[in-house]
Amino acid sequence: MTKIIIDTDPGIDDAMAIFYAASAPDIELLGLTAIFGNVTVETATRNALRLLEAAGLDVPVAKGADAPLAMPPFKPSAHVHGEEGFGDIPAETPKGQAVAESAAEFLVRMARDHKGELVLCPIGPLTNVALAMQLDPEFASNVDRIVLMGGSYKEGGNITPYAEANIYHDPHAAEVVFASGAKIEMVGLDVTHRILCSKEDFATMAAAAPHLGGMLQDMSHFYLKFYESFGMTEGCSLHDPAAVIACTHPHLFTPENVPLTVVTEGEHIGETVLADDSRADTQVLMAVQSAEVKALFLDRICALS
Ligand code: BDR
Ligand code: CA
Fold first, then answer.
1. What is the topology classification, in CATH, of domain 2-302?
2. How far lies 90's CA from each of 47, 174, 215, 218, in Å?
3. Domain segments of the chain: what residues?
4. Is the pLDDT of residue 305 over 90?
5. Residue 13 in contact with ligand 1 by CB distance below 6 A
6. pTM value?
7. Residue 189 Cα, ligand 2 centroid: separation in angstroms?
């Protein structure tokens, strides 16, 4: 079993990733940390609790940062994920509450308690992770590795021509993380643009797993419409689920070792580019066995209730 914490801004593909983690017999989910991004951090925390309750998982949620390290707060991406984060489905108040610790404090404690074993899977802006690194200089070496959804090496951006959304929403935090010396795997647009989930795939999940697969299908209408608005009619990218799958199935991806840095100003802000200092390499996932990743995702979601 791989011990995982997901740092998340739920978000429709975040919901897909969290339900995948709930379905995976090879994942021990130790908690979720919430971050602004697709929604505000308040909504992200509420949505994280709601997803766990829907999936019947009793694991802690810690609330994180509400703004980037060095830039003013961003407006949530309501045009991509809907006002409440889950497309058209109405907001719901969860029964549970976030723990008293901040996300950064929770991450630091969990990395110490599970030293060398914890795989951290950030699927939103990297602010909480950078704050954990600033709080504890040993955090980067206490985690086993960081498998993050974000960035792009050769693929170009999705929020600007150069930047991927998660990195763009806090480039300074991303730079702290890439420069930290932690073992990092970047699951960026180079691979996530190759794995698509269609309307028919959502129908398959809803038919097999009416509760959770059905919830994903309800969310998907809004998300698929957003993709269609720029000509992507074959489906939406499995961005965040791909990162969770990479935590346990690295053989389905091909990495390239490159030292990465993040552009923190100007037109290219948020772009992930080759670093010219002596920092540790990031493993950038550059190719993916798309059919296998998608089949794994669908099979496991279909096995849920
Ligand atoms: C990333 O940005 C968010 O909109 C998604 O949830 C995903 O984490 C894709 O660029
Ligand atoms: Ca996300």
1. Inosine-uridine Nucleoside N-ribohydrolase; Chain A (3.90.245)
2. 11, 32, 11, 10
3. 2-302
4. no
5. yes
6. 0.98
7. 13
